[in-house]
Design brief:
Helix content is 11%, strand content 30%. The chain has 4 helices and 22 strands. The chain has a 6-stranded antiparallel beta sheet.
Length: 340
């Protein structure tokens, strides 16, 4: 048998590829054949003797293929019940291994290990892009490579908020400037360091730390957390988590109820110049017609722009944006907090 394929691509191709499989892994050690672990494998040359064959074959050169009703799988994802794993077959029908693949139609990046099995959870290895060891995380249900702010298991029964580089997907550590905002991540675990919020007071920093711990969580209409949020569901969850109740009844925790509580307690401010970190922000044409809420972060030192953290709910490139950081909306109407 000849030596196994060793997938190699130039760095530029690794980053720029779209709609095609591309390797982001370290090149595997040479071996005689790919071994996916399947036991029911027939010689590829004998497929014609098995009408409508479903399953694995191995060619004389050691390559493994999959057939559906006698037709070789090409540029296709396949699930094999015997090995309980998902696989990807390239355009020539060969089994992909040690590769990142952009699944057509679904537009999600997944990774296959040295056996060709789809990877789930944390994966640490050396990247040929920079020759350094990095850590990625793949959704434990879909296998999709996570990017941006994400909440993942911390290995101790809890979760941690981390950030994955949006292009290559590896976890970032230390001091990082993301969308103009500086964040600190643990140099070993990658966990977002809470309470490090510029010149904010201790209580302001606590509120903002709670809010930042949910960066990357998805938007959900009427979502009250802890991991899916509407805009006012997010402001409700943050302050409820901090031990504050800005509403008269749990039956109504909306931005209408929150703004009413702040107004009745003399906590509302009506100018952006008066805002302080942690203030709940309200947006809309009038107090009777509010449309959005967020939490004030402060002024971005690099851009000079006032920013908030919020469950955005708007759509970018077909994706509804969840908890993120951005500038204040144009129709700010007021804001406040029980801590000020």
């Amino acid at each position: 048998m000849k030596n196994i394929r060793t997938p190699k691509l130039p760095v530029a191709s690794l980053i720029a590829c779209a709609g095609v499989a591309c390797a982001l892994m370290a090149t595997p050690a040479q071996a005689l054949a790919v071994d996916c672990g399947a036991k029911n494998v027939i010689p590829d040359s004998e497929v014609h003797n098995h009408m409508n064959y479903n399953g694995w074959t191995r060619a004389d050169d050691g390559e493994m293929y999959w057939y559906d009703y006698g037709i070789r799988a090409e540029y296709k994802e396949v699930y094999d019940p015997e090995t309980n794993a998902w696989y990807w077959f390239d355009a020539d029908g060969t089994l992909a291994f040690d590769k990142d693949v952009l699944i057509p139609g679904l537009l999600k990046w997944v990774r296959y290990d040295e056996r060709g099995h789809m990877i789930y959870g944390e994966d640490t290895r050396v990247s040929p892009i920079d020759g350094e060891e990095h850590t990625w995380y793949f959704d434990t249900f879909t296998g999709e490579m996570l990017k941006g702010f994400q909440n993942i298991p911390d290995g101790e029964g809890g979760t941690k908020t981390v950030y994955f580089e949006p292009t290559v997907g590896w976890m970032l550590f230390g001091t990082q400037v993301i969308d103009g905002v500086q964040f600190e991540f643990d140099p070993v675990t990658g966990a977002l360091q809470l309470g490090m919020v510029g010149d904010a007071t201790a209580e302001e920093a606590r509120i903002l730390s709670i809010a930042q711990s949910k960066l990357g969580c998805p938007y959900k209409h009427a979502g009250l957390g802890p991991n899916e949020f509407s805009c006012d569901g997010f402001t409700y969850w943050v302050y409820n988590e901090a031990g504050y109740q800005l509403w008269e009844s749990m039956a109504d925790t909306s931005y209408v109820a929150q703004s009413k509580w702040l107004r009745e307690h003399g906590k509302l401010k009506y100018s952006t110049d008066e805002l302080k970190p942690g203030d709940i922000l309200f947006f809309g044409p009038s107090w009777d017609n509010l449309r959005h809420a967020g939490i004030y972060l402060g002024v971005n030192e690099e851009t000079g722009v006032q920013e908030m953290i919020h469950s955005a709910g708007h759509i970018v490139n077909g994706v509804k944006i969840g908890v993120t950081i951005g500038p204040l909306d144009y129709d700010f109407i007021g804001g406040g907090s029980p801590i000020h």
